[in-house]
């Protein structure tokens, strides 16, 4: 069997570990052949293909980013896009299956290609947001939380030095897992997430409570958080290739409101792509490797339209339709648990 691998959407720590796990399992256990599509779905549409051998993945699990490159290309758009053109390309290149490593947008495209065109595809969940409902955790999340936690630790010292309030913005389009975990780990004085809109008065109450105890307030906010007066998450960066708003900037909006209402000098910091970069954590290397190995087994079982997933500590399979049919939101009980620590 000849398997094509792609990494699509936002990059994330652990992508290379998935590639390595897949190739090693395929070569050792199944005598498979591998190629990579460069730049995600763009490589599929434009037939930009490179061979991947066992030698090519040597020592790859600790390397951040992706050796294949990534993009947010929609495989249904353009003259060469769509199931018919992709099927023709696969047949001409002798490629029997696609392993698509990506998040919500990538896997939604993979599901459509299987449903509408019978393209043989296996999904691997990739999202630092940890927002896919069909997996308990996705690789990249642990690393992103570690990076955000370190940022909180560093910001705390500079905040205390100047007696300022600091608002740290982390990623989280629809869900607040990174904010919740890093905020709890770093001892944030409030954690603001998309699932829990909040008024500016309540936020300022937390800030003033911290000040009254002689501390410098530190707030963690997910990029998708909305004040209770906002209908949509803050966005001023246009749309991505899947017509979704490119979020970012809510911390910059909150900091001056806090300063105006409390009189506390306030600053904001946006971590942005720092959360995506660098070497993956040990946990993410192991999880990514296991998912890559399981994806190859799924391909040889011809479990097309499925996604490999983590359930507890076991690797399982679910349909991509189930994986993209809902979000892994922060439950109320988890937020209430963290909220005890606010202020």
UniProtKB/TrEMBL annotation:
EC number annotated for this UniProt entry: 2.7.1.11
Main location: cytoplasm
Cofactor(s) recorded in Swiss-Prot or TrEMBL: Mg(2+)
Cell location: Cytoplasm
Gene3D superfamilies: 3.40.50.450, Phosphofructokinase domain
Site (Important for substrate specificity): 105
A GO BP entry: fructose 1,6-bisphosphate metabolic process
GO CC field: 6-phosphofructokinase complex
Domain Phosphofructokinase: 2-298
Residues given in the record as ATP binding sites: 10, 72-73, 103-106
Active-site residue list: 129
Protein origin, superkingdom: Bacteria
Residues annotated for Mg(2+) binding in this entry: 104
Catalyzed reaction equations: beta-D-fructose 6-phosphate + ATP = beta-D-fructose 1,6-bisphosphate + ADP + H(+)
Keyword NADP applies: no
Single annotated GO MF: diphosphate-fructose-6-phosphate 1-phosphotransferase activity
HAMAP family hit by this protein: Phosphofructokinase_III
Family: Belongs to the phosphofructokinase type A (PFKA) family. Mixed-substrate PFK group III subfamily.
Oligomeric and partner information: Homodimer or homotetramer.
Annotated function: Catalyzes the phosphorylation of D-fructose 6-phosphate to fructose 1,6-bisphosphate by ATP, the first committing step of glycolysis.
Entry protein name: ATP-dependent 6-phosphofructokinase
